[in-house]
Structure formats: C-alpha cells, structure tokens
Amino acid sequence: MNKQAMNKMIERKNVPIKDLHLWANSPRLIFLARGVKPTEEEIIKYFCSDPQIAIRRLAKAMAQTINRVLPREPLVGYGKEGNYTIIEGNRRLIVYKLIANPDLAPNEELKKMFLNFRNNEAKIDENFSVECLVALDQTSVSPYLEITHMRNHLIRKQSK
After folding, report:
1. What is the pTM for the complete model shown?
2. Which region, left, alpha or beta, applies to residue 119 given φ > 0 means left and ψ of -120 to 50 means alpha?
3. Could you give the C-alpha distances from 146 to 24, 76, 114, 122, 142, in angstroms and in order?
4. Of 6 and 138, which is predicted with more confidence?
C-alpha cells in the first residue's frame, strides 16, 4: 500500500481520553498466553506493576509537559467516533487515564502520585483531548505501525 492510499484511510484527530480504550491484544500482556482477554483495569494494573514498562518514569516526564504545546507522537488506533481502541501508545494512554482519574490506579501509592500530578502539574480530566491517528479498522493502521516500528528499530540500532 502506498503512502497516499494509507493517508486516506487514517485520520488525524484530537480525541477525549474517555473515548480511548486500551488494546487487550497488546504483545506486552501475559494474559494472552493464558487465553484470557484482560479488562482495562487488569491492563492498567499489569502495566503499572512491571518495572520494565516504566509507567512511573513515563508519568513523571509526561506530567511536567502535559499542558505545554510540545510536539508529541500521536496515539494510533481504530474504531469510530466515541469508541477508539489504541494499539500504539498504550503506556501513554494509561498515564493520561491515571492522571485524569487517579482512582484507576492499582494501589494507594500510585493513586497518591497521580493525584499529585493532576492537582499540581497536569490539570486534566477525562475530557482532555489527545492527538490520535485513527482508522475504521485495525487492518488499516497496521501498515503505519510497521513503518513506525521499523523506523524506531533503526534509530535504536544506530544509537548503539
């Protein structure tokens, strides 16, 4: 598929956090090995508990810049108005969701941390809009993801 055809299928838009959902088929989720589709609550808990995923470090960086106009990599997903599943950017989406609603945090320590971010640095709620690249179905965004992952792999390889 050429870039022009891909651009027609993928739309850039700002979407409220409340309309964005985590991708239950993320390769990072061990639940899939057991054949169980996790809930958003389980996904958040897993991402927050795995030190290699580094949600705390990402949250600190995002909280300091969330209300500034900075170039950000858009989240990538599929669906229709009011209901998008994010397949690229789930860690960032989790941080947005936890800052907007610290009660989603899986433990009191994280809840306190995200409440502090929301009250002091990142004053957002569930209506906060995030830049996204969206298509009607997952198949339409797959070529974009392949290009992005190849580019990121090359950048990491060159920086070593």
Report:
1. 0.84
2. alpha
3. 19, 12, 32, 32, 6
4. 138
pLDDT mean over 66-79? 81
Q: What's the CA gap between 68 and 86, in Å, rounded? A: 23
Pairwise CA distance, residues 121 & 128, whole Å? 14
How remote is the C-alpha of 79 from its chain's centroid?
15
Q: Give the contacts of 150 (CB within 8 A, at least 6 positions apart).
A: none
Q: Name the residue among 120, 75, 115, 121 with its Cα closest to residue 99.
A: 115
Contact 86, 21 (CB under 8 A): yes
Q: 73-93, pLDDT tens digit by residue?
A: 899 999 999 999 999 999 999
Of the candidates 92, 105, 86, the one whose C-alpha atom is nearest the C-alpha of residue 21 is 86
Residue 34 gets which letter from DSSP? G
Question: 29 in helix, strand or coil?
Answer: coil
Vertex 62 angle, CA 118 and 116, to 5°: 25
Higher pLDDT pick, 3 / 126: 126
The C-alpha angle 94, 81, 99, rounded to 5 degrees, equals 20
